[in-house]
Each structure stands twice: as structure tokens, then as C-alpha cells.
Specification:
One of its GO terms (molecular function) is lipid binding. It holds the Pfam family LBP_BPI_CETP_C. It is found in: Secreted. Keywords: Disulfide bond, Glycoprotein, Secreted, Signal. Belongs to the BPI/LBP/Plunc superfamily. BPI/LBP family. By secondary structure, the protein is α+β, with helices and mostly antiparallel strands. It has two domains: about 190 residues, Bactericidal permeability-increasing protein, domain 1 (Super Roll), CATH 3.15.10.10; about 220 residues, Bactericidal permeability-increasing protein, domain 2. The chain is about 20% helix and about 40% strand. It is built from six helices and 24 strands. The strands form four sheets. Strands 3, 9, 10, 11, 12, 13, 15, 23 and 24 form a nine-stranded antiparallel beta sheet that branches. Strands 16, 17, 18, 19, 20, 21 and 22 form a seven-stranded antiparallel beta sheet that branches. Strands 1, 4, 5, 6, 7 and 8 form a six-stranded mixed beta sheet that branches. A hairpin with a 3-residue loop joins strand 20 and strand 21. The radius of gyration is 34 Å and the shape is rod-shaped. The N terminus is likely disordered.
Amino acid sequence: ARRRMPGVWPLLLLLGLATPGHGLLETVGTLARIDRDELGKAIQNSLVGGPVLQNVLGTVTSVNQGLLGSGGLLGGGGLLSYGGIFGVVEELSGLKIEELTLPKVSLRLLPGFGVQLSLHTKVGLHGSGPLGGLLQLGVEVNVSSRVALGVSPRGTPILILKRCSTLLGHISLMSGLLPAPLFRVVEQTLCKVLPGMLCPVVDSVLGVVNELLGATLGLVPLGALGSVEFTLATLPLISNQYIELDVNPIVRNVAGDVIDFPKPHVPVQAPPKEDHTSQVTVPLYLFNTVFGLLQTNGALDIDLTPELVPSNVPLSTTDLAALVPEALGTLPPGQHLLLFLRVKDAPGVTLQSKKATVSIPASIRVLFSVPGGTPEPLCQLNAVLTLDAQLAPSATKLHVTLSLERLSVKLVSSTTSTFDASRLEEWLGDVLRATYVPMLNEDLEVGIPLPKILNVNFANSVLQIIENAVVLTVPS
């Protein structure tokens, strides 16, 4: 009275009807590629880490008043009690589900179709045998379901259970006695009732995975700058190795207004994804947006006054006279200088050749301090700060740390005489490294936001800078 399972039965997740192309990304979108192993881990973790099985088992035992026996399917008007075909049936008390073994999960992506997922579990049933004593049965079960992809009211992808059934495999009598005819009756009964008892497992798993998928398209705060909302640009695409999400970032300022900074004209060519890795491609647009928000908020402007400048920073008329004495005119040495730096245009970010660079155009007004009076102007300069950007990923964002590579300066006006402003570049560069760059790095602690992709942690990912994008790759 034992039956072998003809292989593992699939759970089909219909996640899309197309396959990814060659990785050609729009100029704005964030491309996320979820490896099949990562999806399998998310499903397995939903069964291990959460109360899925406990909740389902609790539901089963609360509504199950006995599958077999005087009040069940086989007793008192039940399936086989009519006419007393087997007198021993009435001696069976309620056979209940008491245990659910953690399902084994395996899946295979079906390009252009969906995901084939297998849940193989074992059910433990306890009751009293017809001849008295404890009766224990173990049943191997495969749960088979079809799940369609829909859209939630929030516009996030959601998996919807359409059909669920079970396939019984090996049935073993762990303890007690059960005559062969009654064994077959129990087997037939379980085939009818187990789908209703075990399909809640699928529902619960989908609920957990849907929460993870929904979190992908959540709102990410940018501190005092605003926020980024990730939305799905197209339906998910499926290859034989990964699910691809084209995610569109919508940037808002603190007032909630959508901010639309200039977009690159050339689409990103995302590199191929290796097997057993997940990948996120962060576009140049997000970098430009963060720096653009910093500029429009005035966070890139600074007034370097004597109160804010450390005593070891060379910022006096004496330091200036050593480089361009003609700029001072009749000013005495030893007077404090003040630098008022303003950024009127958005910085430019360059991602290429394995290097990230930020260019900040600024105007710098140089003034001198008058004891007990108002600072007086000395000259005005146009400057371009070229900064090297070091990128380091964490679980939720890309951290950016800037260092000044070079400074170019041109004279706009002077209250004394004209001079070659390029002679000030090294000196001003040292001043800005000591004062301005640390302020920039403090403002950049908001980072470049990353969408949350299931439970993938990109803190230890391999970072690659390509043309107009940054690619993060992490093993599954």
C-alpha cells in the first residue's frame, strides 16, 4: 500500500512572458538581476525564519476535528461507514496532522515563461488505531500550485495563487497497526483532504516573498535632501539564470516635489551576469541627482571665516603675498582672509574607465578681514574642483568619499591689479582639502540609494565602474 512519487511536482510562478535582452539599460533605470539561487533562498528562508509552518500547522490543528473516525470522513455517515463495510472503521479515533517537516525547495527558471518551484515535505499524522494504541503515519507530499503575477494597489509586483493541489508519495506506518484495506482508505482520504490542509503553506510563502518584492520598490530617504522612490518600469523578465527587474527611480525633494535632473543621452550597456550571482546596475543619473540636490539645497556652498578655519590652515594676506604680491596692493601682511565659495551649477559626475570623478564649478570671492569692521573684497575667481570619488557599497547604499585631485582657477575681477590666478591653485587646493572637502564628505553620508532586492546584501559585493553606471555583483 505504498506509492512512489514520480519525481518532484512543480510550483509554477508566472513571473513574465519575455526574456532579458542584451542588458541594454535605459539612461535612468536601475537594473536588478536576481539569481535563481537567491529566489530559492528567499523562499527557503521564509519557511525557516518565519512562523509560516507554525501558523499553518496551528490553523490545521484548530479546524481539524479528525479526518477519520466517528466525527470524521470515515465515521458516522462518512465515506465508508455506510452499511458497516469495515467494522474496524468506527474504532478509529480522529487522525490529525501533528507535524509538518520543513519543505525542501528547488526551482528552475523557465525562460520566457516563469519559475518552476518544488516544495517537498513530509506530514506526520497521529491518532488511535482500530485495535487500540497510538497510530502514527508519515506521508511524503509534493505541493503543486500555479501562481500568476499581478500588480498590487501600490504598483508593486505580487504573486497570486491560482490553483493548488498535492501529490502523495511514500506513506509509511510509523507505529500502530492498520489493516491493508483500511490503509488504502486512509490513503484515498488523504489525497482528498491534504490539498486544503497544505495549500496554506504556499499562500504563506507567497505572502513573505511578496513582502520582499514590495520592499524592492519602496521609498528610500535621502536625509535632508528628500527621498528616492523605486518603481517598476516594466514587467519582470526571465532568463534561465535570473529574473531581471527594470527599476525606475523617482526623486523628490523634502517638499515632495519630483526632481528631474538632466539624463545621459547614451544608454547603459550592462555587462553579462555570471552564474550564481545577483547584480544591481546603478545609473549615472542617480549620482547626478544626489549631487544636484546638494547644489540646489545650497549644501555645496561654504563661507571659510577665521572662526571655521583651523589655525594651521594658511589663510592670510601673508600667504597670498608670497604667491601674488600684486593682488594685495597696500594691504598689510598678517590679515585674515575669507573665502566665500558658491556653486551655481550642478556638479558633473563622470563614470568611466574604472574611475568615478566629480567636477564642481564654483565661484570664490576672496575678502580680507577688517578688525571691528565689515570684510572687504579683494578679488573674485572662477574655479573648477576635480575630485576623485571612492565608492564603497553597504547593504542599502553606495557610500561616496571625495578627495581633491586638482583645482583650476581663473581671475574674474580684482580690486587692486590683475594677476595670474593659476599661481594660487596649489595654495587654494591645500586650503580646500583641509576645510571644504571634509564638509562635502559629511554631506555625502546620505549615499547613493540602492533598491532592496529580496534579502540580497550588497555590502560585500564586487564593484565595477563602467560607462555611465556602477555595477555591484554579489555571489548567491
